[in-house]
């Protein structure tokens, strides 16, 4: 698609696919002319009213009239300024630099605690054995979920976990597991507002908008729940991709073992090479030209991160995994602009700590051939979604 045009309309759902780096960044940074109202669902639910006849108009008012009819309309990724600006600021007041520092200390402890379980034998399934529970516990700690509730969260959120966000099937365009998180955080925040304590949840409950006003309970709940769900999902995909790369490539593994300073650069190249989020959607509010292509108002645009991060105009030899790649951090795995992932620093820390401790606690890691087949004939399964890129299972063997 990129070789024909980096901004190209596909015939199946009439979506304009953006596969070029410069073109995508321009759209990511343009919240004036592009709405995020369908960022999660894209074309599948359809807009509540026809948009074809509005191609030469500004449809901002039309979007606002029907925004509440769209799936996921109550989540931060679908908000537009100024509402998005206020709720994003609310998140920053919930998660302060002091809290992030405290959470980083917890990350080191929980990594070792979870590796005690995952590395108890000589092989494991890495996603269920380590990545899923680790990511969940890290974000639970960050938001102050009481440790007495951790087992309940594990049972509710990890049993049969397959990652349904980004399925085109109508039956999963619901809020589960967000409904569970909404219920729990409503209880937490209501309780802490009524009975403040010296704990993290009280800080979450007392966070205010930039103008000093106190949000409704549900507004605070939505921000906290969305951070919880999104932060866990994408981190798990990053961790499994990184460990797969290490286990598949002995020479790369040896380099990382010999020089741990390469780990941060390795993480960035993993994010570029195996973007956990395949893409994001926008709706054109008005007619606009991108990359020499005219996009009418009402057009659904997909920013295809997985392709954007392999644009040879930006990343030479893009299909080569290069741990020394100088500009790897220019990837768009965390998006760009107003909606850039607020959990990006946390995800980077989780990945670096997890890989550091995995290498510390093993002398060799390899892919379990009984489960995935021999080299050259590997069998991997990926999540069946158009949004997430991630393995469903990763079986590895190792020596301590």
Name the descriptors:
400 residues, alpha+beta, Cytochrome p450, 3-stranded antiparallel sheet, 14 helices, 9% strand
Write up this protein.
It is a single chain. With 400 residues, the chain is α+β, with helices and mostly antiparallel strands. It has one domain (7-399): Cytochrome p450. Helices cover 44% and strands 9% of the residues. The chain has 14 helices and ten strands. A five-stranded mixed sheet has the order 1-2-8-5-3. A hairpin with a 6-residue loop joins strand 1 (7-9) and strand 2 (16-18). Helix 4 (97-118) runs parallel beside helix 13 (344-361). The longest helix is centred in the middle third of the chain and has 32 residues, at 217-248. The N and C termini lie far apart (46 Å). Mean pLDDT is 91; it is low at 160-164 and 167-175.
Number of beta-strand segments: 10
User: What is the straight-line distance between the termini?
Assistant: 46 Å
User: What is the typical, i.e. mean, pLDDT?
Assistant: 91
Main-sheet strand order equals 1-2-8-5-3
Write down the secondary-structure element order: EEHEHHHEHHHHHHHEEEEHHEHE
- How many helix segments? 14
- Going by CATH, the architecture would be Orthogonal Bundle
Beta content: 5-15%
Helix/strand/pairing class, anyone? alpha+beta
The radius of gyration over CA amounts to 21 Å
CATH topology: Cytochrome p450
- Give a quick account of the main beta sheet: strands, pairing sense, barrel closure: 5 strands, mixed
How many distinct folded domains?
A: 1
The CATH class is Mainly Alpha
Given as residue ranges, the uncertain stretches (5+ residues, pLDDT < 50) are 160-164, 167-175
Overall shape: it is globular
Percent helix, as a range, is: 40-55%
CATH superfamily: Cytochrome P450
């Amino acid at each position: 698609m990129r070789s024909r045009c980096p901004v190209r309309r596909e015939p199946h759902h009439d979506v304009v696919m953006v596969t070029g780096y410069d073109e995508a960044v321009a759209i990511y940074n343009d919240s004036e002319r592009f709405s995020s109202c369908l960022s999660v669902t894209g074309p599948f639910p359809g807009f509540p009213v026809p948009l074809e006849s509005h191609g030469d108009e500004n449809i901002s008012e039309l979007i606002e009239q029907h925004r509440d009819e769209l799936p996921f309309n109550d989540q931060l990724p679908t908000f537009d300024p100024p509402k998005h600006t206020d709720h994003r600021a609310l998140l920053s007041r919930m998660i302060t630099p002091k809290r992030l520092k405290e959470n980083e200390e917890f990350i080191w402890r929980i990594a070792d605690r979870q590796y005690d379980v995952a590395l108890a034998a000589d092989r494991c399934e890495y996603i269920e054995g380590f990545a899923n529970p680790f990511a969940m516990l890290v974000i639970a700690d960050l938001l102050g979920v009481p440790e007495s509730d951790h087992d309940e969260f594990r049972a509710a959120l990890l049993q049969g976990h397959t990652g349904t966000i980004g399925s085109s099937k109508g039956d999963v365009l619901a809020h589960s597991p967000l409904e569970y998180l909404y219920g729990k955080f409503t209880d937490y925040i209501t309780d802490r507002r009524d009975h403040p304590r010296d704990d993290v949840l009280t800080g979450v409950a007392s966070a205010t908008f930039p103008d000093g006003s106190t949000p409704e309970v549900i507004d605070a709940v939505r921000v906290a729940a969305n951070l919880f769900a999104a932060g866990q999902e994408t981190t798990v995909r990053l961790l499994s991709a990184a460990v797969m790369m290490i286990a598949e490539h002995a020479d790369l593994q040896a380099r990382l073992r010999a020089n741990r300073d390469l780990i941060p650069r390795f993480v960035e190249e993993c994010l570029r090479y195996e973007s956990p989020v395949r893409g994001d959607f926008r709706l054109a509010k008005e007619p606009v030209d991108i990359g020499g292509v005219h996009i009418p108002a009402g057009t659904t645009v997909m920013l295809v991160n997985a392709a954007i991060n392999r644009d040879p105009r930006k990343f030479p030899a893009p299909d080569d995994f290069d741990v020394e790649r100088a500009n790897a951090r220019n990837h768009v795995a965390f998006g760009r602009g107003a909606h850039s992932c607020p959990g990006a620093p946390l995800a980077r820390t989780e990945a670096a700590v997890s890989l550091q401790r995995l290498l510390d606690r093993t002398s060799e890691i390899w892919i379990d051939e009984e489960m995935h087949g021999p080299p050259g004939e590997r069998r991997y399964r990926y999540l069946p979604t158009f949004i997430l890129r991630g393995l469903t299972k990763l079986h590895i063997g190792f020596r301590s």
